[in-house]
Design brief:
604 residues, alpha+beta, Alpha-Beta Plaits, 3 domains, 5-stranded antiparallel beta sheet, 10 strands, 57% helix, globular
Length: 604
Amino acid sequence: MDPHELIVLGVLVVAVILFITEKIGIDLIALLIIAALVLTGVVSPQQGVAGFSDPATLTVAFMFVLSAAVLQSGVLRALAPLLSEQMKRSEVGGMLILMLGVAALSAFLNNTPIVAVFIPIVVQAARSAGISASRMLIPLSFATIMGGTTTLIGTSTNILVSGIAAEHGLPAFPMFQLTPMGLVLLAAGTLYMLLFGRRLLRRDVDTTGLEERFGIKDYISEIELLPTAPSVGTRIMDSRLVKDMNMDIIEIRRGETVFTIPAGDMVLQAHDLLKVRCDVSHIRALNDRRQVRIHPAQGVTEGGFPVDGETGSHGTKLVELVITANSPLEGSTIREADLMRIYRAVPLAVRSREAVLNQRLEDVVLRAGDVILAEVRSHYVERLRALDRTSDSPFAIIAEQDGAIGFDKRAAAITGTVLLAVVLSTAFGLLPIVVSTLAGVCIIVLTRCMSMKDVYDAIDWKIIFLMAGALSLGLAMSESGLADRVALGLVSLLGGWGPIAVLAGIYICTALLTEVMSNTATAAMLAPIAISTSLAMGVSPLPFLMAVTFAASASFMTPIGYQTNTMVYSAGRYKFTDFLRVGSPMAIIFWILATLLIPVFYPF
């Protein structure tokens, strides 16, 4: 291997390790890839940053905006009552309607915002139907994944592979080139979930309230400040209770007056009754020093925290906040997120992956899919719901939508028409897709369906940076000859059994990689190898590129391989083994169908 091949191989190995371990963000990994390739001379500076202006990257950015415009209109939330009624009639019928409806939306809109919108819809519909939300959230995620494979704009991976093909002098994918195979996989996946997959999902019915699900009885207490307490006469923000005990004061009762979620500059007085979130051992230590007197926590032992409801006369609600995949809160600690000051929400617990965390919350780092249990002033909940309807919402709220669902008919009509025009103009070859999506964004802004600030907020910049870095890595693999070397090795290993065996090998390698790292990065790494493999075998590159495209989205076996799986992981209170148990048979079915049918739809 020449030096450039060794450098690219080293960058590739380090990138894969960083993607899998998630030690740093994917956007920073992408920038490091570009910097390493440029500084070592593998690619020129112009080639290194060319990914940022690549039509595929720009198209993905514009599609984020169009998707956000449609979702911001509130049209999808109007479907909540229909879904709830269908689930009450039949679990199978509800799952079918959910999966087909979400798949149809995912074919033309970005997957992650669809899931962010549908998580609270599905949770509330499932609860009203008397079934566990975990019965529906994995099907929700899988349906968005499958729907995204049916059109060119269904997911950024499709657009990326099409762009790589164009860079190698091959025809870009037409709008509906993926549709025949995508529909077969969608039908097979839906039937599998209805007939077999749902039997592998847990059957527990979620009848407990939020306090039982998060175990808040163990760390919500009510204490009375005695006159000898050092905190008497000090501001909340300066008190030793808050500083030394990692305590959050949720409410203060002073005589007949109740202060809900009090401000930090409020001065504490003797005999104040404080409802606090704190480790019970800390409270006992205070009690032993006769600084406080512990009272039975009102509303905790007697059920004063009803699910998503009013806490008596105290004027607060408990809500669950699900961190979305592109949330600005992702990667921040609870302290850095400053939920109490910004959103008037007191975090009581965090459900992260498989664990419920309720101690030292200030240091908990938030990840996509984490669920925060928070107590919020009742009048502020509606403001949070309004925020949830915006394109840049930091979380999706799992709460009973007892108010009117925001639905802007004018915005829905305009954004729907624009999206249809983009699809048709691209499908009939009237405009390149990057031009049609750009024009669509301009119309959305000119008609005031979105502001330019909304446009910037709607774009998932992590994905844009990742695509730019991935394109540079793919170019380096081709320019250095590493892709050709890997392709020759693959052909020598499997070529004796014919091109179908090689296609099956490329598919399964892509599918396994995408289970543990970004699907976009996986596609960027494997697409150049797929093209080199076809050249080595003297056959059409299209079926190999299709294998990479479909396999890169076929992440069903782990909750970390695809963003939508990560989002429903904590919201559905799943375990890692739930995805492995339900998703493994589907992954095998998709592998078999892809191996047999890709050569039929896309001949060698």
